[in-house]
Amino acid sequence: MQPELATLAKNGEKPFFTIWTFFDCYVFILVNYCVLEAFSKYKSVVVE
């Protein structure tokens, strides 16, 4: 977790913190999905 986000949470910015955490998770999952897609395509090319 990033320090500035932890500071925001301590300051009582709970709604913002929750939205930001959700957004962070969404981006993280999206990036992982893209990487896995690219990797599986690369793997299938190597196998053929």
TrEMBL record:
Q: Provide this UniProt record's keywords sorted from A to Z.
A: Membrane, Transmembrane, Transmembrane helix
Residue ranges of the TM segments: 17-36
The protein here is known as: Uncharacterized protein
Species per Swiss-Prot/TrEMBL record? Trichinella pseudospiralis
